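Our preliminary data section would be incomplete without showing what the modeling component actually yields. Below, a chain of 263 amino acids is followed by its predicted structure, encoded as tokens that our downstream tools consume directly.
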Amino acid sequence: MNQEQRAKYGDELYQALRTGKTIEPFTDRDSEISIDDAYHISLHMLEKRVAGGDKIVGKKIGVTSKAVQDMLNVHQPDFGFLTKEMWFNNKDAISISENKLIQPRAEGEIAFRLKKDLVGPGVTEQDVLEATESVIPCFEIVDSRIHNWQIKIQDTVADNASCGVFVLGDKEVDPNTIDLPSAQMRVYKNGELLSEGLGSAVQGNPLTAVAWLANTLGEFGIPFKAGEIILSGSLVPLESVVAGDVMTLEIEGMGTAEVSFAE
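Predicted structure:
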């Protein structure tokens, strides 16, 4: 795929982002589209966001757990970028219409706040641990600009890993005090227990997922930077949300995160 076609697809996604309208899957239109093409499409959309005044604040890995892979029928992780416009505070009410969310789904994650740079390839789990300032309970509200979530891995990578917005809990914890694979998450929807999961759901260990992401982005010359937020992937199945819903999660030893949704 040439750069002109990548830019065209990136423009389509940016327009979908700003209007809240979906587009048809790229993989239905171009059977030759590669993950490398998809990544450059996502970069074009990101460049347009930054040119419009947004700012990169981190990175994300997604589709890491078997539950999410089976739900989306995508059987390898995706990766993307976090921006300032995506970032919401604990207990914020997120307007679905104002934020142009199209088909949002909530997922519970462990977020990492970095205290030093990491540059792949060659990043290990121990490197990630040593580079992490804190871990934080987090909701990511994923959202696909692709019609009816009909995605293959190339579609979701192109669409910035289907990222909508994210919400960090108030409490930050030293990662050395937590057994991350054994960390248990409980997710509640409107006060009722919805799902449970362990840190091991994401590639066996959230540290493994973050190392994979650092090494994958390193192949494209993209570093992790001190101060960035890194989302490590969902521990539980995705849950569709609408106006009026309240989602809460708790992680043993780490605290809670909460988000509500408005029209």
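The CA atoms of residues 30 and 223 lie 30 Å apart. The chain has a mean pLDDT of 94. Preliminary results of this kind motivate Aim 1 of the renewal.
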